[in-house]
Amino acid sequence: MQAIPPLKAQAGTRGNLPDKLARLARSPFGQHYSSKSAGSYRKKGLSESSTLPQRHSAVGISNFGIPIRKLWLIGAALVLISLAVATTTYAAEVIVDDGDAGYADTGWSSATDQGYPLDPGMDVRFTADGDGSQIATWTPAIPATGPYAVYVSWTTHSNRATNAPYTINHAGGPSGFTVNQELLADQATAGGSGQWSDWYLAGTFTFNAGSSHTIVLNNNADEYVIADAVRLVSVSSDVSGRKFEDLDGNGVMNGSETGLEGWTIVAAESFQSFSVDSNDTVGMTSNVLANGEVYLVRVGGTYDAGDTITADAKYSVRPPNIYWTDSVQNYTSYGPELLDLQVDGVSPDWGPYNTGHVYWLNVLGAGAGLTFKVNDIGYPNVGSLTVDIYHAIAQTLTDVDGLYAMTGIPSANFIVAEIPQTGWLQTAPGGGFYAVSAAGAYANFDFGNQKTPSISGMKFDDTNGNGIKDPNDPGLPDWRIRMRDMTTNLVTTRDTDANGAYAFENLPPGQYRLTERQEDGWVETLPVSPNRYDVTLAQGQQETNKDFGNFKLFEIHGIKYEDVDGSGAFDALEPLLENWEITLTTPTTTLTAFTDSNGAYSFTGLGPGLYTLTETLQAGWGQSEPSEGSWDIEGQSGAVFEGANFGNYRFASIRGRKYRDDNFNGVRNAGDPYLGGWTIELTSLRDGTKQTAVTKANNPNKGSYAFTNLRPGSYLVREMLQRGWMPVNPAMTYHRVTVISDQALEDVNFGNNTIRNYAIWRISNPSSFVSPLTIQGNQAVVPQFEEAAPQEGDAAVPPNPPSIDVPHLTPPTPPELPKVPKEPPVNGREIARKVLESIKRWLPNNF
């Protein structure tokens, strides 16, 4: 075996180390080590020895590129000193030595007892400098896909190469570096302490599981090249922080500001970066995004769009205006999508405008690339936008306090960013994300967001027209709300959603005017005087409850009919009345309509308010419906009030005469005289009202009475019996009669005689005693209204129209009325009996 030239002598052997300390010293990562239980321990290639104390460094790399911790060995004491916040987690390691199966070379030689930093007695491989054709290859078996810290080792001497060339073939491709093998590993590390060390850290790279990756060393160097061992240590990172609402927008969480729950925080590795030429009419297509994987797209920059317009991914400005707007000034007819950076032909929501012109978008991979192109109507433009795509490797949600934490992130080179939400502007961190360039544990990665200025409200059906959003007023979907920027005069619209809600978000501070587009058949009830909202927005201000109330014009329908029976309700066969005037009044308006040939009328296009509906009575007619003479109707949005009917009747009358029934036969005979000055009482059996008439005392109408202008219905017609008189017809002193519309009921007569005359008549006519007692049931025969089946050729009568349930349209129920007069009736039979008993006392016993 060829001998390697003498090694450069170095002081620093360690002797008589306890076994535990020796293992810690030899293997700072706690996995592989060399040890000797007692006696001296000699570093390979060193001829001189020395004793403790000796300093040894266990090196991990933070995001600042400095050692994370150091082990100080003083005698038998072990002291741990933390030098930085970030720490490295070592989950697993793989070592391939030059004598292992995973090592291979071409044309290299061995040097015995040169295998430091591994166990004594092992060798190293070496070769002279050359053209790079002499290659040493390490093929590690990677246990799991992820990031690994790569270390290499060698033995030092003054005849070693100062530029030994390594290549690491990792998942991201090849990465090359050189080392100065005249130096110790720690001295060769940039920024190293110059102290003796076992391993040289080449960097952290991602490897796929298996044996597909290699580390290669060749002899394209200036002197001897040493191939010893490589070491891969699995590393991961932890990040934590808080998501908070930055009320004042200063990027720092103040005492009064609180955390935001339910926001997604993502750790993502760089996937691809490129520029999109604003003058490119085809577009730039990204690499394929894996199906189902989450990606973050970051776009930054501005470009010259011509006509003095400067634009970014979503917004533009055109002097003399100083405000950036979504719609291009002077080109608003082309819509807000003009000059947008579109993705696959669609303008995404890039979020609110920010002065850094940086916008984020999260997308889900679909197994294809994304095409980015500026949407313009005319080219050329000048300039480009930068697109950075990141692949999410971990994500989490903030808790109720806004806190989040991700542990074991399988990367040492990634960013931490938030998934943007509509209506929020990011205020921290300044660049929009945190960058991690080395594995470690990182805290205080905080994200601040401030609500963007916004205007929101609801469009509702003002069912009672009171101009207030009442609890039961429903929202109106698909109504268009207009917002005018009073600075730029640009108009933006929103359509209300299924619940009637609308919102204008991501607005720059300024003055705005909100109106609605009116729909046919509706009137606006909120806002009024003026019918708009003028709003001034400051940064972070949200204007809510800018509601629009509308009332759908309503209708009133009804019929006019002759109420033949006076019931106050329309019956199917009752005739309908044409050309009657119906009047609708409000405090400010009077409307009239005339009934048509079917007795129908209607009022349409009515707005909110309280309406009174009346009719103009015609001579000779009375009203039965509505009972109070008019309908009071409170407008309801979109309602159709049916059944606001008017019932009328022509006046009826009841007439008769009062006579003395001299022969007590219950019928007026030619000689029976008429009686004047008798009171006749009429009682309505519908409502109990009474009226009286006195029979005339003089000829030619002596004894007559009359009740006129009567409503159709049933009545009790009763005589007021005078002292000393008894009824003959009717025996109970009253008639029960029914009259219909326009009926003149005659001969409702009353026959009476004195009790004395009856006694005398009874003495003279003993065989006719029963005669006056058998006529008590005699009553006038009056016509009764009956419904007849329609005959052929009769005019069609519309059915009783259905009515909606409107309480104020329902007439009151008439009170329960007595069926007989309140005064006790006088029975002719009873009177006669008492008279006969009284006169028997003075009649002869044989009478």
In words, what does this structure look like?
Residues 798-818 have a biased composition (Pro residues). It comes from Candidatus Uhrbacteria bacterium RIFCSPLOWO2_01_FULL_55_36. This is SD-repeat containing protein B domain-containing protein. With 847 residues, this protein is mostly beta strands. The protein folds into five domains: 14-236, Galactose-binding domain-like (Jelly Rolls, Sandwich), CATH 2.60.120.260; 237-451, Immunoglobulin-like; 454-552, Immunoglobulin-like (Sandwich), CATH 2.60.40.10; 554-649, Immunoglobulin-like (Sandwich); 651-787 and 797-847, Immunoglobulin-like (Sandwich). It contains four helices and 59 strands. Strands 5, 10, 13, 16, 27, 29, 31 and 32 form an eight-stranded mixed beta sheet that branches. Strands 24-19-26-17-28-30 form a six-stranded antiparallel beta sheet, with no helix packed on it. Strands 6-9-14-11-12 form a five-stranded antiparallel beta sheet, with no helix packed on it. Helix 3 crosses helix 4. The chain is rod-shaped and about 175 Å long.
